[in-house]
TrEMBL record:
Signal peptide: none
Organism: Capronia epimyces CBS 606.96
Molecular function terms from GO: oxidoreductase activity
Name the record gives this protein: NmrA-like domain-containing protein
UniProt keyword Membrane, yes or no: no
Keywords: NADP, Oxidoreductase
Family of this protein: Belongs to the NmrA-type oxidoreductase family. Isoflavone reductase subfamily.
Residues covered by the NmrA-like domain: 3-246
């Protein structure tokens, strides 16, 4: 048994991982919270909360005493200049934490996704930590996009809410980049949480790049699966790479469901930017994540995309 600290533990993905860790009944989980009132409560066996100030280095070091692994889910949009995560990393090193996972939980690259620019900066910060020898064992958990999002508007995870993507299974339509049949990785929320729980128990060194590849599929393969499970071809709208580069998106529809962390007054512009950025970065390979944890946890059986979507969309209008 080890002690695991979860930063940003009230977030949707964090709560899925916490549930998987609780179900394993192996470890003690401490949720780090900016609020005095616990974000989840202290009524879950094996889970406690500690109020922290991420600007108080001494307090952070004290909160991390005896912690083996830190999992960070700090919202990048609410962490100016990545101060909270950088301070958390520094405190983890001083406190003798063995393992650290920064707030990743998505794509392999962050190119053309300014809302995730903080990830690249934190990656560089962690790289410098170990440039003269391994000081902190860390990994970048990267599951690609959540397969659950292709079930929108239906909810398939306990905490992660439905979100739109360029593949709209409900309305049988999609937006694709002209001439780019790129590879994307889709992993269910359940599989991500289960892999993280198993990774905690892995006794070897964590790989720096922690790819989790539930399904690696091309855009055309996704559309074929969509046609099969939804009963007819999708209406396809095509955009050009150069238009996306210029920030232009001339389509009849766009994303609608916003993440809970996005303020109402920023939602429309950010959703447009997210769709452009996801298409643009996808064409450049950002969503074709690697499979380091697949190779480490070879007995784990991932949910197949077609099986998952066939079950979700069976008998749906």
């Amino acid at each position: 048994m080890v002690k695991i600290a979860v930063a940003g533990g009230s977030g949707q993905v964090a709560r899925e991982v916490i549930d998987a860790l609780v179900a394993a009944k192996k470890h003690e989980i401490i949720i780090l919270s900016r609020n005095v009132t616990p974000p989840i409560g202290n009524n879950i066996p094996g889970v406690t909360s500690r109020a922290v100030n991420y600007d108080d280095q001494t307090g952070l070091v004290e909160a991390l005493q005896g912690i083996h692994t830190v999992l960070s889910f700090i919202q990048l949009l609410s962490d100016p200049e990545n101060r909270s995560q950088k301070n958390l990393i520094d405190a983890a090193i001083v406190a003798g934490v063995k393992r650290f996972a920064p707030s990743e939980w998505g794509s392999a690259e962050t190119t053309d996704m300014p809302w995730w620019a903080g990830k690249a900066q934190v990656r560089e910060y962690l790289k410098k930590v170990n440039e003269n020898g391994r000081v902190l064992d860390y990994t970048l958990f990267q599951p690609g996009l959540f397969l659950d999002y292709l079930a929108t508007p239906y909810r398939t995870a306990k905490h992660v809410a439905p979100l739109n993507t360029m593949f709209d299974f409900e309305n049988r339509r999609a937006i694709v980049v002209d001439g780019h049949d790129f590879v994307m990785t889709f992993t269910t929320v359940r599989d991500l949480a289960a892999v993280v729980a198993e990774a905690i128990d892995y006794e070897g060194e964590w790989p720096v790049i922690g790819g989790i590849a539930g399904n690696r599929v091309t855009v055309s393969q996704i559309l074929k699966i969509g046609e099969k499970v939804r009963g007819r071809p999708f209406a396809i709208e095509t955009v050009k790479l150069e238009d996306l580069e210029a920030g232009h998106l001339d389509t009849s529809w766009t994303l609608e469901a916003r993440h809970a962390s996005v303020p109402d007054d920023q939602a429309a512009s950010l959703l447009n930017a997210v769709l452009i950025g996801t298409l643009l970065s996808g064409a450049k390979g950002a969503w074709a994540v690697s499979n380091e944890f697949n190779r480490i946890l070879q007995d784990y059986k991932f949910t197949r995309m077609e099986d998952f979507l066939a079950k979700v969309w069976e008998d749906k209008p």
